[in-house]
Amino acid sequence: MRINCKSLLALIALLTLSFGPQATAQDTKRSLQHIEGDVYRFQNNFHFAMVVVTDDGIVVTDPINANAVAWLKDELSKRFTQPVTHMIFSHSHADHASGGQGWGDIEVIAHEEMRKHVKIGAVDTAMPTTTFNDVYSFDLGSKTFELTYLGEGHGDDLIVTIVRPENVAFVVDVVSPKRLPWRDFPRTNIDGLIAQIKVVESLDFDILLPGHSVVGTKEDATNTRLYVEHLMKEIKAALDAGRSEDDILASDITDAYKDWGGYEQLRDLNVQGMIRWLKAKS
Ligand SMILES: [Zn+2]
What we know:
By secondary structure, the protein is of the alpha/beta class. 36% of the residues lie in helices and 23% in strands. The protein has eight helices and twelve strands. It has helices spanning 2-18, 66-79, 94-97, 114-119, 190-202, 218-240, 245-249, 263-281, and strands at residues 30-36, 39-44, 47-54, 57-60, 84-88, 107-111, 130-132, 135-140, 143-149, 159-164, 168-171, 207-210. The strands form two sheets. The protein has a seven-stranded mixed beta sheet with strand order 1-2-3-4-5-6-7, covered by helices on one side. β8 and β9 form a beta hairpin. Zinc ion binds next to loops.
């Protein structure tokens, strides 16, 4: 097992070298940070996943990619004696879900819509072994895992995983605390996105562990929803008043959010995405 893992890492290092300097291991920021109780946060550059260490096995969430899995596998074997027994997918988008095969023969849990995305090759990862519709929960060691489907919005298979007794919620893409939503709301039904965030707000948890950005609380979910609703309301009013896209882009509608992460890079894209969404609806 150990030899296999090392040979895999050596192979990855070799492949990385042959694909040029941008992909070297030194450029990838990885860490496993303790959050609360037995809950940890795995970072792979700008993507984050949750790891929960129970007496009866380790539960990992989004694999992110094959190299990330290889690194985390090695790190967990150095720090803990328990094997990884379960993987939970937050959703099927390739930037979070790729490379799951690297965990081998373990239980893989996801929303049932995820199977079709894996089947058609939209994401290269492990096929879920256990799927569910609305809610699903299981116990492992002294932990309880509560999984809740968020409905359609950002994708059609997004779920939240809450771990008890730590009361940590792993929330991906719909809420990135103190950070603007990603680009121009790609692949997103924005009305659905707002409804998805409302489901997150309705759940019982203390710590919001996001797939991007800093660790937060439920208040960050509310603030993200208020931002999206504010953007929608202001842009709808501007479009109804006949204002042009350039005029809306030059306006001060998002000034209250200037201190949020990604403002410089994402603000115009957020505005353009919302204009496109509202025009398509009307
Ligand atoms: Zn996504």
